[in-house]
Design a protein that fits this description.
With 203 residues, the chain is mostly helical. The chain has helices at residues 3-70, 73-98, 107-142, 148-180, 184-187, and strands at 190-192, 197-199. A two-stranded antiparallel ribbon has the order 1-2. Helix 1 (3-70) runs antiparallel to helix 2 (73-98) and helix 2 packs parallel to helix 4 (148-180). Keywords: Membrane, Transmembrane, Transmembrane helix. InterPro entries: DUF6992 (IPR054261).
Length: 203
């Protein structure tokens, strides 16, 4: 093989290598951009939900405070429980908005973050059902108690708050679940083998 022919082969190999590197870098950048968009949208959904929860809490605390001071009987206890209950809701929403976790930068981290929030919402929905059940229990117990107004007022409050939270967590879950399905757009460019992950391209 002549020196000239050898140099030509080296140029071809170098050119091929540069093309491969360029495509790989482009593919990595494209995947990172898609992951970033995916995570930002999930964070936006959660942030919006926390504002809704915070707004509900503030409204209940204001009306609860006014109602507690101007009403009597079971209505007074109803407003009292609404006010106390939503102090917790406001604290949860405020802490979630103020102390947001950094967005994950890897596919694995993105999937874990998505699954964690979905599982948390399902767990919360279970708690919401328990709140509603407790509300019915208090209302039933009130019929056999000398503290009828207290138990009835608290029971009605638990029914209202539990019902709202069940609706809230349900909407949040299905919204985030639908968003989670869009991860397929990112996975379209990723191939999994036994011990590795690769980026695929179609031309």
């Amino acid at each position: 093989m002549s020196l000239h022919s050898g140099l030509n082969d080296m140029r071809k190999q170098l050119f091929t290598l540069l093309i491969f590197i360029s495509i790989s870098v482009f593919g990595y950048s494209q995947n990172q951009t898609e992951l970033e968009t995916f995570n930002q949208k999930r964070q936006h959904i959660v942030t919006t939900g926390m504002y809704v929860l915070g707004g509900w809490a503030v409204a209940n605390m204001v009306t609860g405070g006014i109602g507690y001071g101007t009403s009597s009987g079971e209505a007074r206890y109803f407003h009292q429980m609404n006010m106390m209950w939503n102090t917790v809701n406001l604290g949860l929403s405020a802490s979630s908005l103020l102390f947001q976790d950094d967005l994950p930068t890897t596919l694995r981290g993105s999937l874990e973050a998505q699954q964690n929030i979905e599982h948390l919402l399902l767990f919360n929905a279970g708690l919401d059902v328990a709140y509603i059940t407790a509300g019915f229990y208090l209302k039933e117990r009130a019929k056999r108690s000398n503290r009828y107004d207290r138990f009835t007022g608290y029971g009605n409050s638990l029914l209202l708050q539990g019902g709202f939270l069940l609706l809230f967590d349900g909407v949040m879950y299905f919204t985030l679940r639908n968003h989670g399905n869009s991860i397929g757009k990112v996975l379209e460019h990723v191939q999994f083998s036994g011990n590795s992950v690769g980026v695929s391209f179609w031309f």
